[in-house]
Protein: CzcE family metal-binding protein
Organism: Piscinibacter gummiphilus
Amino acid sequence: MSEPRTQRNTMNPSRVFRIAALTIATAVPLHAMATGKDVFRNGESIFGQPAAAGATSSLVVDVATTKHVTVPYGETVTFQAPNGKQFAWTFNGLDRKAVPVAKIAPADFPATQGQVYVQQNPLTRN
């Protein structure tokens, strides 16, 4: 009579690799959120992107006199400071979001407390 087989408690190497990959794939976005980075997993800003050179801006905002503004999703807005500096931003990240101007402004742009409220993306309406 032969002895009964005992089951070994070993993991398949491919299963270990899959578990490690899943752990890393989950941890990276969580780390970005925990560090306060406002970016998607691909590194793009959740607020949109700097406007392309030569992009037409439908709205010019003077940050010295405007504390908040509402813009349609996908809109390009130019922000102007009293010292003459300006930058343009296209709001095509997340919709229905309040975007602090200070988070999207270039480093040399004067500090501002303004907010931009981005309306809902028309493609995601129910």
Remarks:
- The domain at 49-124 is CATH 2.60.40.2280 (Immunoglobulin-like).
- Strands lie at 49-50, 59-62, 68-71, 76-80, 86-90, 97-100, 115-118.
- Residues 1 and 54 are 86 Å apart (CA to CA).
